[in-house]
Structure of Bifunctional protein FolD:
Amino acid sequence: MAATVIDGKAFAAKVRERVKAHVTRLVEEHGVMPGLAVVLVGENPASEVYVRSKGKATREAGMKSVEHKLDAATSEADLLALIGELNRDETIHGILVQLPVPDHIDADKVLAAIDPAKDVDGFHISNVGLLGTGQKAMVPCTPLGCLMMLREELGSLSGMEAVVIGRSNIVGKPMAQLLLKDSCTVTIAHSRTRDLPGVVRRADIVVAAVGRPNMVTSEWIKPGATVIDVGINRIEKPEGGTRLVGDVDYEDVAKVAGAITPVPGGVGPMTIACLLANTVTACCRKLGLAEPEGLTA
Ligand SMILES: Nc1nc(=O)c2c([nH]1)NC[C@@H]1CN(c3ccc(C(=O)N[C@@H](CCC(=O)O)C(=O)O)cc3)C=[N+]21
Ligand SMILES: [Mg+2]
């Protein structure tokens, strides 16, 4: 039986509608328009595409969108000064500094300078610590989007075996925390894991976030498992040009999985929807309002 395709694009559209409804309420009942600032340092064509689509999605949701494009030679001090201004700006509820930043800038220092309450990426150590101790945090957008899709597809995740492939601070580790919070038995596997296929074969839920095109194949997958593909790899096509593929060999894995996310059209659109969701959440928290329904973990 062929796997169910988890339509991230369609689900993201639903989340964005929810975001829009909350934004309308915030504007009409509280006179506050949530604002998101995205900061991009240097020229990277892929990053510029993401920044543009984030800005467009933000405006479509009825929110304020501010983009700061800084020269690649911008000093760390100037970037920190801009973050300070955005921290103090009452019209800005969310701040995202697009990663990676150029080598002469210390990313950890930059992330630590963002007001944790405005840290819509959830990368500040204070949010990392809050999430890790089960407290109210800002949750990183990609793992949050993956969790929303898993809950939508599977209902309760309680007791399930989850294997996260990849141990990055932006996906693997926070993903594992969220799955643990939903009472999964969680394994974080990575490049040094012995018998990676054998470990992944135990999983009811597989989240692949390694950055290796088509690495996960059908022999790794327990029949019926739910597979979330976080990879976004641009590869050369034999006939010229490039195409986007995930970390999962989609055609192959779809033959045995119960459900699978495509690339593109899976995790990517959900990441952007969750960025908007986090901006609304940050705004609601600042105003002392209840957590916005359907937008948090
Ligand atoms: N501080 C920070 N936060 C981020 O969240 C962040 C970042 N830095 N740096 C770059 C990555 C990348 N990223 C993506 C978001 C959406 C898609 C997306 O919507 N992708 C579409 C396809 C887009 C295309 O065709 O290129 C899809 O998967 O369907 C992709 C990638 C967020 N990132
Ligand atoms: Mg790794």
In short: The radius of gyration is 19 Å. The pocket of magnesium ion (ligand 2) is lined by residues 166-167, 190-191, 210 (CB under 6 Å).
